[in-house]
Structure prediction request, 168 residues.
Amino acid sequence: KDIMSGVTMTDDIFANLSLFKNFDQAQLDLLRQIFVSCDCHSQTIVFEQGNPAEYLYLVALGEVLIRYKPDDGPIINVARVREGGVFGWSAIIKRRTYTSTVECATHTHLLRVSSADLQSLCEKYPETGTIILDRLVDAVAERLRATSPEMYALLENSLRSGVNCPGG
Prediction:
């Protein structure tokens, strides 16, 4: 079931997110074309562990809870992602499925981008694509600050090799 309804993102919210800061109007217009927005009620499941990994998500407002269910144990609450945070990066590191379940903890406004649309942006507009990828790496890294340097390097390499920008 697709939870995205194509709600129009207001310019103020879009422009105030750190992922989109300091872009010129033409770049923002390109990005608005590929990021789809949606309002989700509390307890909405955005995607479940094992679903096909197609989209990367950005929390514009609100909060989501990321849960992981190991084969041999109970569900683990992995993280809470708040405004400006990203999740679902399995989609852009070429994983076939999501590794966790994500549920909205509050009323949440999300932006999503498909890996195909992000790849296309990077190919057609490498400068804008490279900036977005750098910022996505930074946003993911925010959540992993306590993680070992080896894990961070692995994630950064995966993100950069999953979506390629010419000259990026």
The first helix runs from residue 11 to 16. Confidence is low (pLDDT under 50) at residues 1-9. The chain is about 35% helix and 25% strand. The beta strands are 36-40, 45-47, 55-61, 63-68, 76-82, 86-87, 101-104, 108-114.
